């Protein structure tokens, strides 16, 4: 064989190899993230409490999209609004599936609710409960946290189950409070080991790794009570013909048809319980979180509260409660509302999504089945002096991200009850600014008690319990509220 032939053969083979490598599809890398350990992946790097804060810190090292693998489960953290909108909104058709979180499913069962058009029809409920809230805060201000919870429960309870909640000791308030506190104590579902090892749900409760199982069982019992008791109440009223029209009764009518509620299948009943119970629980807990955060912010920043009060008096006056029509005329209060939502986002990681097919984003491969978490906490921290409560930032920079555009989630999975919830919170904040003074509580020696900005970590973030001093702003507050309540009850025949 000649040297020329050998050289030609080697050259041809090299050319073919190079051509093959250049035309073969290149295997894309997954997005950057912390280095995984063998077999267990990043499981030891996912904190059990406040994971949103650690995920936000990872932005400095890995950018705004962070890829993890917990055992075999891929997770993508979105730490910027651009990434969240690109994937969860612009590509919502393939990012709208929910992952089946085992612990979350053991505790609850998710989704559905109200529309923008329906909110105005619910105005009487807001106006009535707002009067009761101010009355309660004026008469027993030391119980302000219970009054906030009663207000939140009452507004959504009437819509969902058609019943009134007037007492802090009401059964439905206690059911929601117990279920909410136990859910918070159980930790963030996405941080639980069982979410990534579904087989663990089959282990016995006495096993060494079964704490989650025991806790989930307790939480499930509390949540089941919160779902079942009001549902059975509405069902009984439907049968007796005494039901107040509400979301649950309408769902029963839609599923039961002409045959009535007795013809509902077990599957229909479970679905209705899940829809109604989830709407009630989610709206109640997040409303409590945001209003409590407002109280804390006003205690710590009296200058903000006074500025909002001055604006309120100039626009609304001192002889009536503000209404939703006043909102556009209260720009500083709007900035305060935005800053409350930004400072402590109620649901810091939102609800998780799941990618339904393989995808490519920014040149990175995202595998099918990846759990997608929009880190709302990180997104809202992306501003100057992010830890400082400063409503003026929205005046100084009109283009600054509006927290309300992200706190309710993204894309097709955005919270369906956002219009109702936002109105409940705004009206309560406006009424409090109009009628009450909030200041620091005093200790036994007369010294100011300055609370800290600390949160109870969990799926919904609440401020740690704190004390404050609440007094009516004027002598006529009680009379103003009584007159407003009488007008509401008369106008709507409630």
From TrEMBL:
PROSITE patterns: CYTOCHROME_P450. It comes from the Eukaryota. Heme binds at residue 415. InterPro entries: Cyt_P450, Cyt_P450_CS, Cyt_P450_E_grp-I, Cyt_P450_sf, Cytochrome_P450_fung. Pfam families: p450. One of its GO terms (molecular function) is monooxygenase activity. The keyword 4Fe-4S does not apply. The keyword Nucleus does not apply. Pathway: Secondary metabolite biosynthesis. Its cofactor is heme. Keywords: Heme, Iron, Metal-binding, Monooxygenase, Oxidoreductase. PANTHER family: P450, PUTATIVE (EUROFUNG)-RELATED (PTHR46300:SF7), P450, PUTATIVE (EUROFUNG)-RELATED-RELATED (PTHR46300). Belongs to the cytochrome P450 family. This is Cytochrome P450. It comes from Collybiopsis confluens.
